[in-house]
Amino acid sequence: MMSLKYLLLLLLAAGTFVSATEIITSGHKCQSHLQGAALDEEYIYLSFTSRLVKSDYTGKFIAEIPIPFHTGDICMAEGDIYAATDHRPLGSHATQSAVYRYGRDLKLKKIYPIYPSDIKIEGITFYKGKFYIGVGGNSPPHRKNDILICNREMKLLKRVTVDTGFNTRFGVQNLFVDGDRICGGFYGGDKGICFEPETLKIIGTFPLNPTEGIAKVPFKIAGNNNTWLLSRSHGKRGNYRARLRFFRVEGEKRLLVPLKKLSLPK
After folding, report:
1. Among 19, 81, 164, 226, fewest CB within 10 Å belongs to which?
2. Hey, CA dihedral for 111, 116, 120, 126, is it positive or negative?
3. 104: which DSSP letter?
4. CATH no. for residue 40?
5. pLDDT at 233
């Protein structure tokens, strides 16, 4: 495997910054901030509100495409990338929210309108044949938020209101699966909130605060450790990149993982 010192010198020359514990991605400089992250065994996928970006595990830019404003969270499901999109034309609010399905080559495969048509969506994840979609949007601080449970064709099966116990901003930002729990990130809290998949009853918390992008690291890269990619916006408006760090989660504890502890693809 390439030494970290050599990798650092190589990527600095290419515009990527790598330290012992974090990567600042190169190539793409986006107008709007980071919203979501997804992983496979070779690449990292990042949504920046109106751009979908693909990079390798060194943070090196691979490709990007424009995506509808306002795209929020993304997830991997059965080999494809699904993006929760709340259309917001300039000067007005959302019209018809939809989930956009992309291949790993970033080519659009299908668009699934979300009903009721007046809601705004932000978070998305996939668990045992069902999609969990978080309702978001610009709203006053509130404790109660809605999560939609949909089938593979995005037909609504159930809409559940959850009470986080603290005031949140903008609704459900990110959703992800931790074992047999559905978890979410909310602006306003310092931890994720975890739910039982069928009832969405709160059953615990998650020690990371996933409000921009989070994804489980594949076994091939992290082994048996419960390791997560946590991504944040880096830079300022009009010039955003992504700051990527890896954490191992043990119960309610988190441990920052040095890059040398991971089997990152060459």
Report:
1. 19
2. negative
3. T
4. 2.120.10.30
5. 92
**pLDDT tens digits, 193-236:** 999 999 999 999 999 988 899 999 999 999 988 999 999 999 88
Strand partners, 102: 81, 108
| Cβ atoms 72, 122 nearer than 8 A | yes
Bond from prior residue into 113 cis (ω within 30 degrees of 0): no
Amino acid at 147: I
CA-nearest of 184, 173, 92 to 137 is: 173
Task: Please check whether residue 47 is in contact with residue 83, taking contact to mean a CB–CB distance below 8 angstroms.
Answer: yes
Number of folded domains that form the chain: 1
Residue 13 neighbours by CB under 8 Å, 6+ apart? none
Which token pair is 169?
Answer: 């901003």
266 falls within a domain: no
227 assigned to some structural domain: yes
What is residue 13's predicted lDDT score, i.e. its pLDDT?
42
Token pair listed for 195: 């739910």
pLDDT tens readout for residues 164-201 = 989 998 889 999 999 999 999 998 888 999 999 999 99
User: For residues 185 and 195, is the Cβ–Cβ distance under 8 A?
Assistant: no
pTM: 0.91
How far apart CA 76 and CA 38 sit, in angstroms, is 6
For 125, the domain range is 4-261
Count other C-beta atoms under 10 Å from residue 5's C-beta. Answer: 8
pLDDT, tens digit, for every residue of 48-79? 989 999 999 999 999 999 998 889 999 999 99
Distances in whole angstroms, Cα of residue 30 to Cα of each of 135, 222, 235, 249: 24, 29, 10, 30
